């Protein structure tokens, strides 16, 4: 099955400005709390959030980043994200269709929250390669995935997370993993950073 493209999500946002009820759902708020907790209190030089939607998680991540870039490919969602993060001058947004496009630069935090199961297997593997190209040696990749599967999605969130981790196993390790009732959260770290940490102990 191919990845969901802009037209798929445009129909969703045409029906609702907040189609996943990010602003009012207790479940979404609790998931954001868990996502931020997985950062382990660390400060990041430069963060990238792929699939930022209307910016609710972006707003929380910004407290831990010196610079943060949120990308999505729906202009209406990006407009709302800019309003949500309007008082956070170090946060910026761009219209980028991942993995056909990818922002330049190096990041020590990459967040892929509720996006991987919208991608085909090939596109997901391409995202791993793109992350490898731009992730700092001491960086984190944070995956958040709904465990179930919609009939029209390329894969379940669980399968998407497993595929991402397996594809990157030659340069990534799982530093933290949490499975809640409806989602899983995985924090991935480079093998280089893990080796360096052992060497300094």
Provide tags for this entry:
27% strand, 36% helix, Rossmann fold, 7-stranded mixed sheet, alpha/beta, 201 residues
What does this structure look like?
- This protein is 36% helix and 27% strand.
- Strand 4 (107-113), helix 5 and strand 5 (135-146) form a beta-alpha-beta unit.
- It is of the alpha/beta class.
- It has a single domain (6-200), classed as Vaccinia Virus protein VP39 (Rossmann fold, 3-Layer(aba) Sandwich), CATH 3.40.50.150.
- It has a 7-stranded mixed sheet.
- 38% of the residues are buried.
- The model is unreliable at 194-201 (pLDDT under 50).
- The longest helix has 14 residues, at 121-134.
- The protein contains 7 helices and 7 strands; from the N terminus they run ααβαβαββαβαββα.
CATH class: Alpha Beta
Bin the helical content: 25-40%
Helix and strand content put the structural class at: alpha/beta
User: What proportion strand?
Assistant: 25-35%
CATH superfamily: Vaccinia Virus protein VP39
Compute the number of helices: 7
